[in-house]
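2024-03-11 09:14:02 DEBUG pipeline.ingest accepted 1 chain
2024-03-11 09:14:02 DEBUG pipeline.ingest length=213
2024-03-11 09:14:03 DEBUG pipeline.predict start
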Amino acid sequence: MKKYISNFHYLTQDLPGRTHVQQALLACEAGANWIQYRCLSKDDHELLDEVNEIAAICDDWGTTLIITDHYHLLDKADIQGVHIEDMQADFRAIRTAIGEDKTLGASANTIADIRRIAESGAVDYIGCGPFTVTYTKPNDYPLLGVEGYKAITEVMQKEGIPIPLLAVGGITIGDTEALLGTGIYGIAVSAAINHADDPTKALREMYRKTIKR
């Protein structure tokens, strides 16, 4: 089942002084049409309380809401899908668990990861990174840079891998145009907005540059 995937994904994060609910409201008010709720600091009960607040906000604004990893919560709140960060996850099993209607995203770093995920036949989009150094999701994966995305998208096109590919990891406003010129489908952003002096302005600018294509 082919699903709508936005070209611009905004990710909430654990921040001092601004809750995930506040981040989601700010993003919706600034025009974001896709939010990934990425909370790594709460148990299921706390997550549900917060995600239900965020879901109500997203519903008011017509914004798609995705949750990171916690796919067992999909039937307990108005969430449209899940993004799985474990590249070795059993995506077929997750698809069976969540059903065909929910959106399933996956993380990748290499073309080998993308091939394996694509072969599962279960995933709707892939977030590939990191583009450059990122402190939102510390890891030791190789940095891709613009040339890395060019190489990956060329192979995907040659091999007929049609899954939407989003760049993620350390992307700033100044990187947006060069990245979109590599053939990727879109971008996923967190810190460039959440740590900006004016998050609303930053989101609107990045969103406009990404969606206008």
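2024-03-11 09:14:41 DEBUG pipeline.report The chain has a mean pLDDT of 95.
2024-03-11 09:14:41 DEBUG pipeline.predict end
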